[in-house]
Q: What sequence folds into this?
């Protein structure tokens, strides 16, 4: 249930535009910069939700918080399916920034850490993100199938009305699944903490100050920031397939969907490896792999017709990205962060770590719109290479202080 809810809650605000990016831009009549600004609205609201929601997770049962988050998020999908104006979309993404983070994020991470115990943190978080990847891949395949099923004409001949009609069923299906799982979680997910914090605002503030004194917390902020920028770049995989490799909408959506199957493989594999050595070592390896993939794409070598090279490079980049994502919260224990303060620590760390939610979308959108085609994508991957290098340096320092 943690795995299911952990991915489904982000299907509407992120997943649909990641897998169906060319289609999403067209049916909502958006530019890359406008879509990026929606993510910025989401990220701005999420920024405050992380820290206050983290404290909330230390005082209430994770299952109830997660269930409410899922159901309220699902309701937003009903509005999305009406193809509202850009202003309404901004409000909707702000609403999702609250529903998917304030009640959800700290509760999910704390629930997973409790599930993993003292010896299996790598496996717990590896299974969490690997399982989330499997859910995402499965939902992506179903979404592509539903879209192609309800697209009544050939994809090349379909007009905007045809595309909107077909995509509406994808949105409604996702909303239904999210709502149903939310109800199920409410009644069935029962995780209790032995170290539960009292509901006291001043106590929460003291916890925040205690967490901020740890160097490991600051380093983990930067590790997650660099890794999460890499994860945000997965938003443009399908767009690269469309604009540079000249794939049609269905083929591009399939690229966005199929690469998600690498996520469970990478996450579960690296989770097992992490518990047999150290999670930080494998995070370091992940950053080096991500750096290699970003350099290949930034070089401009991958162009239309080089399909084998495109898929091999995509595999390298995705494996690096997903392996880091699987493990960065698994090193909370290596960083000597108390279980009782997990929710607070996650909130504080996420406050900086997930700022790419605010700046990555507009940044990528600017270059993709200003330099259409290959050049715009090259600029994005140059930024990714820089963040990969910063991630290597921060992880190396984390290793030094945790030994």
A:
């Amino acid at each position: 249930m943690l795995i299911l809810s952990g991915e489904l809650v982000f299907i509407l605000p992120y997943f649909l535009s990641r897998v169906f990016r060319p289609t999403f831009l067209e049916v909502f009549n958006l530019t890359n910069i406008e879509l990026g600004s929606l993510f910025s609205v989401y990220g701005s609201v999420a920024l405050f939700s992380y820290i206050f929601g983290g404290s909330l997770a230390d005082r209430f049962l994770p299952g109830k918080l997660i269930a409410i988050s899922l159901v309220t998020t699902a309701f937003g999908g009903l509005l999305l399916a009406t193809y509202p104006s850009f202003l309404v979309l901004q409000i909707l993404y702000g609403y999702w920034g609250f529903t998917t983070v304030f009640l959800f994020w700290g509760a999910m991470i704390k629930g997973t850490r409790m599930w993993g115990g003292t010896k299996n943190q790598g496996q717990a978080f590896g299974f969490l993100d690997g399982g989330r990847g499997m859910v995402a891949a499965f939902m992506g395949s179903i979404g592509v199938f539903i879209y192609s099923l309800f697209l009544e004409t050939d994809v090349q001949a379909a007009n905007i009305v045809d595309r909107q009609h077909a995509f509406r069923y994808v949105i409604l299906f996702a909303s239904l699944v999210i709502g149903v799982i939310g109800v199920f979680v409410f009644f069935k997910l029962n995780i209790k903490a032995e170290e539960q914090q009292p509901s006291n605002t001043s106590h929460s503030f003291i916890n925040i100050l205690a967490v901020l004194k740890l160097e490991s917390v600051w380093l983990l902020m930067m590790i997650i920031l660099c890794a999460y920028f890499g994860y945000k770049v997965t938003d443009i995989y399908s767009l690269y397939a469309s604009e540079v490799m000249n794939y049609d909408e269905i083929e591009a959506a399939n690229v966005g969907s199929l690469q998600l199957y690498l996520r469970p493989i990478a996450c579960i594999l690296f989770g097992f490896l992490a518990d047999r050595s150290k999670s930080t070592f494998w995070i370091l390896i992940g950053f080096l792999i991500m750096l290699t993939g970003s350099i290949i794409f930034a070089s401009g070598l991958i162009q239309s017709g080089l399909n084998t090279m495109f898929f091999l490079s995509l595999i390298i980049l995705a494996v690096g990205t997903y392996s880091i994502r699987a493990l960065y919260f698994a090193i909370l224990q290596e960083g000597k962060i108390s279980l009782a303060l997990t929710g607070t620590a996650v909130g504080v760390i996420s406050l900086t770590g997930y700022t790419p939610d605010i700046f990555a979308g507009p940044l990528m959108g600017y270059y993709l719109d200003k330099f259409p085609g290959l050049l715009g994508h090259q600029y994005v991957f140059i930024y990714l290479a820089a963040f990969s290098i910063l991630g290597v340096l921060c992880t190396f320092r984390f290793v030094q202080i945790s030994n």
User: Anything to note?
Assistant: The domain at 2-190+201-402 is CATH 1.20.1250.20 (Growth Hormone; Chain: A;).
